What we know:
Mean pLDDT: 90
Largest sheet: 10 strands, mixed
Helix content: 25-40%
Number of strands: 16
Number of helices: 13
Shape: flat
Oligomer: single chain
Low-confidence stretches: none
Amino acid sequence: MTAIPGRFIEAHIIQPIPFANLNRDDTNSVKIVKWGDKERTRVSSQCWKRAMRLYLQTRLGHEAALRTRRLAEYLARHLQEEHDWPADLAERAGRHTVVASGVGGEAPKKKPEEASNGNEYWSTAAMVYVPASAVAELADLAIQHREALEKAKEPKDPAKFDRGQSVIPATEVDAILRRRNGVINLFGRMLAQVDDAKVDGAVQVAHSFTTHATDTEIDYFSAVDDVTDTWGDTTGSAHMGQAEHSAGVLYRYIVLDLNDLHTNLGGDLADTRDLAAGLLKAALLSLPHAKKNSTAPNTIPHLAHLTVRTDRPVSYAGAFENPVRADRHGGHGDPSVTTLNHYAGAVQKLLGESGRRYAAHATLSQEDTEALGTRVDSFDALIDGALTSALTVQETQ
């Protein structure tokens, strides 16, 4: 086993977001936080963490992970489409699989004849989080026990179901639910119902917030009826509505615990570096997708600052408790960079150099950024430098 001297890699990001609503609450309103006695636009950690996970899976080619309660339905569809099982048998296999698992199943709240789509599937009693390949493995398990499934009765009450008498072996189902991949090793998994399925995440993501005060704006919109527009025989629109948006410069903060990731990966240093590089790239370039077709807020960070620390993470959120004021040209981007630079210098003077192993940044700004370490030309160079510093390892007994 190797020791990693640079345990924590931190990403401090200043990113402008134009008129958008990246993350809505239950009323479709912009999420906010009041801090420094001023209202700020906020993007939740869960929202951006999902964006990072999807970026890892779709852009960087890492194996996908599946988070769902619709495992029975997904398995049934897989058996029908990939193995030509009849629908009733495939659905029975899905139901028996979820009730055999340690997670357990929940019967539909509606009878099939009452459901709007003509069928109501069983769900797992809690959300499962597994590699996407686990569905194919569960299908193979069902195929092995097809004869028994064909003779089996439908499970009635999940709460009274005896897993020991399951048509599908419960231990084998749980073994598949314990599977993990790179994405799960990074972000972790809570699955208390299955023994040894819990994975401690290696990534910390803070709620992003604007470095300055923001106002929420109401966007009134209407949709033209093309026939009415062509004929010109009446006035009015086919639809009217309104939606909340805001704009601002966000401070984003992400921490990767390389020790925890290394442990989750069983001590494989090459996999640790590969996944860490992917995570940092996703941290810099991912973006939540809410309302993307109507706002296209496809910005990149104005500044990305990476640090490697040996002792503990240090957020620079305190730099913005006092809201940043726009500069004489009206923008908040460069003033946010300047504020971050001043705060980082003050923090490092207070803490000393013992805990910081690496500091560098890449930015579009021309402001003084000396306290943020070496200025590099690209995000790739920034990530490579941080990982090279953090993963310069020495063998331990």
